[in-house]
Specification:
This protein is an alpha/beta fold and about 220 residues long. Helix content is about 50%, strand content about 10%. The protein is elongated.
């Protein structure tokens, strides 16, 4: 069953030989914890790197695996194995978004967050939600301004047909020019095109429009 699947993550700070023994010990302890909790181990990941770094191969593989597979639990020796400082809170936030329950060998059960941790994670969730709302509002405003200035989104053929095709990653210079002439800012053009299925940054919009003007 999905709720009985878990992954294991172990970490030490350096790649010294003595630290490798610690990795093995963590793995054994967490396998025992999984057995005690009647959990099926789907995969194990490890790193020999500082907890202040987020660019860890094992950690990135872990996050990708969790996103792509049905996993409910993450087993670690203690919370410092995930990370330290700001990195720790960022990772906890990502795991919370994926609805992962964290179990630790030190606590012999679910990780107990402090009141401060809970408050910070709550703030991060609220900020992220409002970022989404602001982004969507920019898209709506951009589309409204474009239509008011004569833009006809139904003529944008690239927004129809194969939604998974290569056409979605091509820069629609004709649309950029048309929206720019309609009076939209580069940021509004970027947001509008995102709503039509083209993931293009404001900087890319500005650069491509400048290239078009230079060629013209």
């Amino acid at each position: 069953m999905t709720q009985n699947k878990c992954v294991i993550y172990t970490r030490v700070s350096t790649d010294k030989e003595a630290q490798e023994t610690s990795l093995s010990r963590q793995q054994i302890e967490l396998e025992s914890l999984a057995n005690a909790q009647s959990l099926l181990i789907s995969a194990s990941f490890s790193d020999q790197q500082s907890g202040y770094d987020v660019d860890r191969e094992g950690l990135l593989d872990l996050l990708t695996y969790i996103k792509e597979n049905e996993v409910s639990y993450l087993l670690i020796q203690d919370e410092t194995r995930l990370g330290r400082g700001h990195a720790r809170m960022a990772i906890l936030h990502l795991l919370e978004k994926e609805q992962i329950t964290i179990l630790t060998a030190r606590e012999d059960g679910e990780l107990a967050l402090t009141e401060t941790d809970t408050m910070v994670l709550g703030i991060l969730s609220v900020v992220e939600e409002y970022q989404r709302k602001i982004h969507n509002a920019k898209i709506r405003r951009g589309m409204k301004r474009a239509v008011q200035n004569g833009y006809q989104p139904e003529r944008n053929l690239k927004s129809r047909g194969n939604q998974m095709g290569r056409e979605r990653i091509e820069v629609p210079i004709e649309e950029i020019v048309r929206l720019r002439i309609a009076g939209l800012t580069y940021e509004e053009i970027s947001a509008t095109l995102s709503g039509l299925g083209h993931s293009i940054s404001k900087a890319t919009v500005h650069r491509r429009f400048k290239e078009y003007k230079d060629q013209a």
